[in-house]
Amino acid sequence: TTLLELNNVSKKYGSDTLALSDVNFSVKEGEFVSVIGPSGAGKSTLLRCINRMIDATSGEVIFDGVNVQNLNKRELRKTRTKIGMIFQHYNLVNRLSVIENVLHGRLGFKSIITGVLGMYSEAEKKQAIELLTVLGLEDHMYKRCDQLSGGQKQRVGIARALIQSPKMMLCDEPIASLDPNSSKVIMDHLRNISKSMGITVVVNLHQVDVALSYSDRIIGVSKGEVVYNGSPQQITSEE
Ligand code: ADP
Ligand code: ADP
Asked: ABC transporter domain spans which residues (predicted)?
């Protein structure tokens, strides 16, 4: 079944930057899709249009059966809980502990941070601990985030996204700031999220080799247009 569908999505910044031009594709439940393309191709704009961090100029984004363009604020908040976001620069609250950052995922994106563990139920804390253990962070749960390495920070970001029980993860250049070893750990976790948990993963990458080895499907973007949509095997054999 289709989870996400983009129909003729275009995005203009100002009057003359056409960042996306009639983008069409769909993504199935549980699928692992990489969006690849050079810097400035429109990858980041594409992900932001999907959860409406920015509004597309025209076209439709259908997620989980609803047109996200038509949602009011309250409905959009509900839809966004089904979409976990992962960023290149982690977007963690450095002065808070790892587990507090994860628990704040429950409040939704851009929540007001108060930093009080007591505001969460025991069940929520147990779930956060379980997720952090799956991600190999059981020994770091009470450290401040600014004491962690980049790879550890990104794993906190993944746990924070997963605690909402999302249907889809949108990852914007999740390994662009990481060394090869940490990148592999993060990509292995994302793969596991798709294949074991059944969560759809859409990930922006500029490393083609990584996209080739992890993805079910690759969407190539250049100058705001989809120029390739197919399996990694097809790409490799065309070269
Ligand atoms: P990518 O993620 O592939 O590097 P982006 O989506 O960041 O590409 O950018 C696509 C194009 O849109 C680029 O030309 C970029 O300069 C432009 N762009 C991105 N964000 C903005 C913005 N907020 N305002 C104006 N232009 C933007
Ligand atoms: P990324 O590394 O994620 O591609 P950038 O460093 O290109 O992001 O951009 C950082 C921020 O600046 C983003 O919010 C993006 O939307 C915005 N931005 C990018 N290009 C432009 C542009 N040409 N004009 C205005 N804002 C831009």
From this structure: 4-239
**183 ligand 2 Cβ < 6 A:** no
164 CB-near residues (< 8 Å, 6+ apart): 81, 82, 84, 105, 106, 108
Expressed in angstroms and rounded, the spacing between residue 42 Cα and the centre of ligand 1 is: 6
Helix (H, G, I), strand (E, B) or coil at 66: strand
pLDDT in tens, the chain (239 residues): 999 999 999 999 999 999 999 999 999 999 999 999 999 999 999 999 999 999 999 999 999 999 999 999 999 999 999 999 999 999 999 988 999 999 987 764 444 445 556 678 888 899 999 999 999 999 999 999 999 999 999 999 999 999 999 999 999 999 999 999 999 999 999 999 999 999 999 999 999 999 999 999 999 999 999 999 999 998 877 65
* pTM score, whole prediction: 0.89
44 CB under 6 A from ligand 2?
A: yes
Whose Cα sits closest to atom 11 in ligand 2? 44
**Calpha distance 159→131 (Å, rounded):** 6
Distance of CA 86 from the midpoint of ligand 1 (Å): 18
Distance 212 CA to ligand 2 centre (A): 26
